[in-house]
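Provenance and format

Records in this collection were gathered into a single text stream. Each protein contributes a sequence line and a token line. The two records reproduced below are adjacent in the stream.
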Amino acid sequence: METGQPYPFKGFWIRFVASLIDGIILLILIILLASISFVIFGAALGEGAGVGMFLLVLILASIATILYKPIMEASEYQGTVGKYALGMKVVDQNGQRITMTSSFLRTILYIIGAQGFLLCLGVVMIGFTEYKQGLHDILANTYVVTTHWEGPVPLEDNFGA
């Protein structure tokens, strides 16, 4: 990449902090909803119903957590709350908002790539790739850039054209 071009790509550590922010927000909401459901249904229907509702809320919260990332990244915010708070957005090669399909693909690949030691290399590679992409970004053809970036992402074409 030429030195005169701006560098909009966001690296590993700021994306890691954004993930921590998202995790804390989701964890607080899940614990709050599970606790409230346990107390309300436990008091109204007995302790067994409270435990059942607690487990149901945890299952629904897991589904909501999986949906959170793709829905937020394909929205007008172009990123999760953590990314948005830290001035990042997810874009395609043209600098446009990604589609819901790309966002779901990216999220599924992220979940797979973040599991286990060897597979987490797909996320760690963000710190070492030229355009700060993890495996999920590369396979979904997405980029995480500053929210101030407009237009196509500056990529070398490697063909001298």
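Adjacent record:
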Amino acid sequence: MRRAAGCFVVEGEVLVRAALDAGLTVVEEFVLDGEPPISGAVLHHLDATTLERVASTVSPQPHIAVVALPATVGLAGIGDGWILVADRVQDPGNLGTMIRSAVAAGAAAVVVTSGTVDPFSPKVVRASAGALFSVPCIEVMALRDVAGFELVGTSSHTKSGSVDYDRYDFTGRIALVMGNEAAGLDADGPIHAWVTIPHVGPVESLNVAMASTVLSFEIARQRKHRPPAGSEH
């Protein structure tokens, strides 16, 4: 429905302002009676009862905006930076946190495969804290469609040829691929390399959003302190 309408919903003054700051177009704005508008879009005043009915949160904020989806960008338009790929990630809180961490760590784009929760759903938008507005979000059918990048998969279990995440060279044209919460990544998928996050104790694995955050900032650390892969030392 969002794709057909070409719009998505942003709730809360902070996020509406973040969308405007990112250059997105607010199509309509819904404001609680007595509150000033934020944008210059078509304005609708709502009473508290109506606002509660249309908002997606239990305690709605007084500003809701209908925002035009950003222009579609293909992977060919991404420069030399690294990207995050969410493969069939289903929890909106997880995906929003992953996007937030990736953007904070300098990701050039976010890619979602078919079966992943809609990145423009209200819960993902909130969890991303506006980070979703800052980078292209590209949708593909499957991992095989992520061309031009070295796909680095993650697993909580040691795979043949896998290395600890802090020993892998992330300074090239990398796509960090994070899999489904329950099933992870397909073992026979088009993954070029595997990394693991070592841990001790009875914990079997990290939450996908936590693991994504750890790896995103390791990528940022390496790309800050090491020359790009293939360059002369």
